[in-house]
Amino acid sequence: SIRKKPWNRVNSPVYSLVTKGADGFNMNICTYVSAVSMKPKRYMVAVYEGTKSLDNMKGSEEAVLQLLEKSQYKLVNYLGKKSGKTTKKLKHLTSKGLIKEWEGFPVLQDCLAVLKLKILQTLPGGDHVCFICDLETYKNLNSGKPLDVDYLREKNIVRM
After folding, report:
1. What does DSSP say about strands 113-125 and 62-67: parallel, antiparallel, or unpaired?
2. Which CA distances in Å does 45 have to 29, 55, 88?
3. Beta partners for residue 33, in sequence order
4. DSSP assignment, residue 147?
5. Would you state the torsion angle of the CA atoms of residues 78, 84, 87, 92, taken in this order, to the nearest 10 degrees?
6. What element of type H or E holds 151?
7. Is 62 helix (H, G, I), strand (E, B) or coil?
8. What's the pLDDT tens digit per position in 4-60?
9. What is the C-alpha separation between 43 and 103, in angstroms, rounded?
10. Longest C-alpha distance within the chain, in Å?
11. What is the pTM of this model?
């Protein structure tokens, strides 16, 4: 719609970021993600200030991006609207049988793809911190349609 701000008129894929900290793993929701280079394959991932994921990213060298499948839209409220500082997200997801292991990281078994990233650089980004990362390895796990922000709007999970 022409009434939307320009940055809200563009549809974006929805990812979950898996980070590792001293007290274990955390998952969040990321929509501020972009490939920024082809050779080497490099991504920018923006992580919201004040989050467990940001604390973990600042103390780590690696993380995993998971490209979510459209049917996983209900996970957005849990992974994106609950804080890893007060909720053990992985414990709950594991108890529901939703997690498997890949490259030493817990991942959502129904996601479309996983990308292991090596953190190269950190840049301030206002209310987010931007991480420039090299792609170390990836794996396509499932076929399906990617979850996107327009679908989250349709389901009234986000309003923008």
Report:
1. antiparallel
2. 11, 14, 23
3. 45
4. P
5. 60
6. helix 149-154
7. strand
8. 888 888 899 999 999 999 999 999 999 999 999 999 999 999 999 999 999 999 999
9. 19
10. 46
11. 0.94
